Amino acid sequence: SHDTGLAVDLYVFNTQGKRRAGRTNVTLVGGREYDKERTKQLALLIKEVVASGFPVQEAWFNDTDINAAVGSVPGSSAPLLRTDDFRCNRKPAGERATCNRHMHHDHIHVLLRGTHPHSAEHVAALLGLVWSWD
Question: Is the pTM of this model over 0.85?
């Protein structure tokens, strides 16, 4: 989904302000420097954006406390954020054994609805953004 432009990863917050180093995130759910409260605020912001009509198909994150706090968006009974256990259990039996159940321990993976990459202009229109080159 990242290859098509329909997915984004939003990394968890670190209490010390540390950032990712290349492809490795130094902060994991439940870790000593994991900023659960700020990450929860990020997840609630995602819920607010989805509730406003932004086309999100699904989102994955492995902090069950935050997932429960976020719950579902109005008009849906399904939770907005789901764990890798749920994702892996949806796969056929042969694929479950190889499914990575720790993939979303350092970020919230958001998959947009769509069939093609969105242009910058399309995304800007969806978000109601105004671009300026100044």
Answer: no
